[in-house]
Amino acid sequence: MKNIIGREVPEYIEGVGKIDMFVGAWEKLKKGWMDEVTISPPNKAKMPHQSKSCSDLEEAIKKTSPKDGMTVSFHHHLRNGDNILVQSIDILAKMGIKNITLASSSLNEVHNPLLKYLKDGTITKIWSSGIRGEIGKAISEGVLDLPVTIHSHGGRARAIHTGKIDLDLAIIAASAADEEGNATGSHGKSAFGSMGYAGIDSRYAKQVIIVTDNMVEYPCVPISIKQNFVDYVVEVESIGDASKIATGSTRITKSPMDLRIARLAAEVIEHSGFFEPGFSFQVGAGGASLAVAKYIREKMKKTEIKGSFILGGVTSYGVDMLNEGLFNAIFDVQSFDAAVCSSIMNNSKHIEIPASLYANPFNCGCMTNKLDVVVLGALEIDLDFNVNVITGSDGTVRGASGGHSDTASGANLTVVVCPSFRGRLPIVKKSIHTVVTPGETIDVLVTERGICVNPKRPELEEQLTKAGLNVRKIEDLQEEVEGIVGKEKEVEYTDKIVGLIEYRDGTIIDVIRQVKRNEQ
Amino acid sequence: MKIIKKAQSGSFESSDIIVLIEPVEENSGRNIEIDSTVMLEYGENIEKLITQKLDSYSIADIHLIVKDKGALDPTINARLETAIIRASALQKGTLA
Amino acid sequence: MLYIPGNNPAMLQQGGIYGADSLLLDLEDAVALNQKDSARILVRNMLKSIDFYGTEVCVRVNHLDTPFGLEDLEEIVPLQPDAIRYPKTETVEELERLIQIIEAIEDKHNLPHNKMTIHAMIETALGVQNVFRIAKYSKRVDAITIGGQDLTADMNIKSTKDGSGIDLARKMIVMAAKANKIDAIDTVFVDVNDEEGLRKDTEYAKQIGFTGKAVINPRQIDVIHDVYMPTDDEIRKAYRIMKEFKKNKEAGIGVFAIDGKMIDAPVMARAAHVLELARIDIDSI
Questions:
Q1: pTM score, two decimals?
Q2: Gap between the Cα atoms of A448 and C52, Å rounded
Q3: How far is the CA of C167 from the CAs of C102, C143, C160, C216, in angstroms?
Q4: Burial of A112 per CB tally in 10 Å (0-12, 13-18, 19+)
Q5: Any bridge partners for residue C184, and if so which?
Q6: Are C218 and A256 a contacting pair at CB < 8 A?
Q7: ipTM of the assembly?
């Protein structure tokens, strides 16, 4: 059936059950409480002076008594330098464990070796914020029987609180830890910064293993993961490739197109009415989205406007702005480069936050609820301003939901920046492949060929037009783009659902269907 | 027009298309190979442009290979025209 | 004026998005000698199909003394871009020949002789020597530009950031342009990463009278605009002058004073120019 934003979503899916339909971005928040029941975190007990040390990862995993059908979780703070996830699944597979539900906060190309486990029944279900590489491709082609669930960062926290993601084992990589399992990502040879996504796993998983390549003298500080939630501690040679985890500092793009779009977005923000003293700000980790920070920084210096906090997804660029006194604090759920790690260590105003505080909708106010301006990217956007950040134009899963729908729902001004087309593929389209973020939460689209304002914000449109910006109707922009690139041939799908797009409140906003691949 | 020699045009840059042409025996027909980064979405469109271009020059026999990196129609048409003219040894105003 | 290599589809198709005041689609120095045909056909197609959003579009053709120039004109003139830029202009005779050929092509296609204009590019010492006559020769020539790189090569001197070697040439070109009330476009600042250097160079260009500057990377556009943009104060003053002028005109008064200062024709012209740069419609005042 067509849901309230016009997406075709079946009411019942074999192997999943009845589908909880999306009812609107803020509908479920209006009551002031959540209907779903939260589960209790496990009640563990340990004798005094009992050692948690294991000689290797295999021993630790064996001690947790893994069994068929278990759910195992990981965080993705190691990005494409991760050594631990694949290793852990290799161990479980060697032990003959089957029907594993994999609940990594996200999956990257470095996890490609897992493909064989999707084919042979070792892994049968996946919860993730994003899936890329060979895994994403295989899922689009229907390698799994059951659909994967794509959630947002805030949604994952909610799902763990309610037991929808029911964690048996959490394997948490840390760049420094002590013998009791106090752990952090802020220092060590494989430092990666904030451990925002791992905290809730440590609390709710029935068994928790900390894996580190840097065992320090007790106590390990600062404490991101607390010892009273940790069962076992393992020291390994290396948790990952440091060069791929966090390199130097993030540079602003040099692409003239991205810079142009970023410049225009900064002007939109400047004239939006939200560029005021005490404003809070979030940008992406690269491309046009990060470049917006460069222009906002210049404007802040020129107008002497001081902001309140930076949220994210933090790069060294954000750290620079904090150090320049342009903002009072940084709330960091994920750090993107090495420079950020030292800021977390040394600056008390650079605050590490867990995913729940960042974006879980079901509490007394996550950080995204307080956000003024967020700048997001998009793979596709339709005429209702619905955004796709998960599937490519050929239907392949290759992106991530991440904090996109979380921040869009909370921010006073949600700006999407993207080129109107990329390598001939239109980004502004009449119909997109998958909706992750509903249009009602998107305020402005900024492309190199024009700025489009959501009709829900007529005052904003008027303000931007008055400021002399190139504001136009999204329908006109889409038509122009189609005129430039030509009409695409549409992807063909089968009836099989290979992915559910879970909105942050637990409802299903869209589905991903299996792509029909012609046998050559 | 007759294809009498090997020729190519375009580049491997993004938004460009490489067109490679080889002459073939008379009456062997049009042997067209298309490779594109947007094959699924625009492969048919590219094929149509090639057919139209070859028709407009009345070329019946040719071996034509294209490697496309998301070029727009004006670019595809320009590169096809250039390669066909070069392959017919009719190019003007350039150093061959 | 943003330079775009004529054989580069990615850059050509994005030409109109950078907010440049004008574009130079280059068939000359930016194109390899064995790709002249390829670039020509590509630029021709782009002119026909791509929307440049009202940006002024100029095409730099090859000199008629090369094997490429005539073909360039045959393909490009019928499309009537806003202007043709002619490189290495040295004598009035060359200009005469160029215009003859252009007009012949226009006649062949039933096109008027006065729509498309010509930018003469001075890149040699001889060209500098003759610039006054070149600037004066035809109403179709509406801009003189200087090619710093080629000029320093012709003069056999080093190209320096402060442009001291070509300073006289720059000033002569400006003078020739001003004498004929046409535009003078300054040469490219090559170091794309040196924003400060670009700013200084552009400020100097503005100070000596250039009305525009060539850029080779879209990132440079903002700096140029910033330098040429009148300050808020200047705009306010110009606005006031224009308002007073209109008021007095209605009352039949030609020359008037503001704050005790005489406002005569030259002051008026300067005010009008400021408003034009600030993109304020004079009619709306």
A1: 0.92
A2: 12
A3: 32, 19, 11, 21
A4: middle
A5: C144
A6: yes
A7: 0.96
